[in-house]
């Protein structure tokens, strides 16, 4: 049962239910619309995959940082100022020419918010959640990533509070690029492991 | 809990969605409002943050509510359910207000007596130090229990009753199985256990490995 049950006719659409709930809680002083707005703004503007891209670009250009990142992801990510909800314990795994990591949450849509923001729609979609733990090579191929047969795939299912971040391979031909120039090459898809970094 | 939320390996979902460049965080304004409402709902429903209780609320939505309302609709449904559990909202309260918002004239139920669970998290977040050693070590073979529990659990159906190898001993975290039901934090070590695809899906499976992050209580030593 939910509080929307009990009325005649069809359940109201979600947008209207959202408005109704916000109004009911606001008029009783249980929520503050200002706090609501701050939460929304935070995830629309401050917390997103650009944070993760900065982590990756640092790891590509600073071998000592890369070592720390793979050893203790949470601490190394915090060094760059990224922490918070859904980032309590982040483990970073590295993709290479022969090893490929890809991340999913089959039970809900757990995702490392401080470095990647809120998850994109393909990550939350039932087809991805259901299939990538059973036929990852096929799923990745549908997403446009063809891996050679000798590449070993590991799928990480985020079934606890551990959050996984993939450190992608730095593409060939980017040796002359600075850390700042590398950041735009790193998409959220490569940090979940469903794509490879495209050469500039 | 067995149900729609436990999707790993289930058939019939069709092709995956291709990533979209520059997808907005919230496609529609109500999604941002629903996200913020759900983020705040625990403090209102039981005076704290309990992600496990929220996830359990999502799991209890029926199949249509879980799927048809989409991700943020699901979050709204979870928030509604927690607020109803704690009697912050009366049954039918949101529906009645929504009808009034669209111009109908329906009577709204009175505000009920709250029935807030006794809940006091011991610390922020879900990491908790424990003063015992981990029961399993890196490289050890372990078997997942073949248990199907009526309440909340984070042992997915596809990983039950299978043998794998401990790859990483993670820190200890609050145990969702009891915390979701306000029955205590019971922190336990979590183990990233590596399973061969053929162990999970049979001899014809694509060759690959899956790691799942499993609480100590879900695992037993193999003889």
What does this 3D model show about the protein?
Helix content of chain A is 44%, strand content 11%. Chain A has 200 residues and is α/β, with parallel strands linked by helices. In chain A, the strands form two sheets. In chain A, strands 1-4 form a two-stranded parallel ribbon. The radius of gyration of chain A is 20 Å and the shape is globular. Chain B has 223 residues and is α+β, with helices and mostly antiparallel strands. Helix content of chain B is 30%, strand content 15%. Chain B contains seven helices and five strands. The mean pLDDT of chain B is 95. At the A-B interface, helix 1, helix 2, helix 7, helix 8 and helix 9 of A face helix 1, helix 4, helix 5, strand 2 and strand 3 of B.
List keywords for this structure.
heterodimer; A: alpha/beta; two-stranded parallel ribbon; globular; B: 223 residues; alpha+beta; five-stranded antiparallel sheet; 15% strand; metal-binding (chain A); CN_Hdrtase_a/SCN_Hdrlase_g (chain A); EC 4.2.1.84 (chain A); nitrile hydratase (chain A)
